[in-house]
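Model it.
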Amino acid sequence: MADGEKHRYGPDIDRALSVWVVINRAFSALQKIAALDVRRRGFNLTEWGVLEYLYHKGAQPLAKVGREILITSGSVTYVIDKLETKGLIERIPCESDRRVIYASLTSKGKELMAQEFPGHAAVIRDFLSPLSSEEQEQLKSFMKRLGLSAAKQVESK
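Modeled.
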């Protein structure tokens, strides 16, 4: 096959590979928009993820924070330390289990998120605006189905 010629693997595989490329390119572009917005607010995506999660869910065990925003326990400690230094988060020991530590937004953290989150949410809305409400719901359903299927495949290996 000469340079520049397309490899073909059959219609099902070619389509799957094309969809995979489109998903990755779209996600990369959307993540860059979100990262720029979050950086403008003075945070990186991981810090913002922790703040956003605690803002919407309330105090949470540190281990759960890591699982939910997809970061390692070492990264959780580092990010919580940084946000605690800024006075946005506090650690609260669990009364019934000394091994468990909760992360909670301070009043300063709650005020910051109440001020900043609506603007960030508008950025998310705006970058999804090329899709109608119905298309956004369909995309959410499709991506959830793909994600759950992939998670099952990972668990079975």
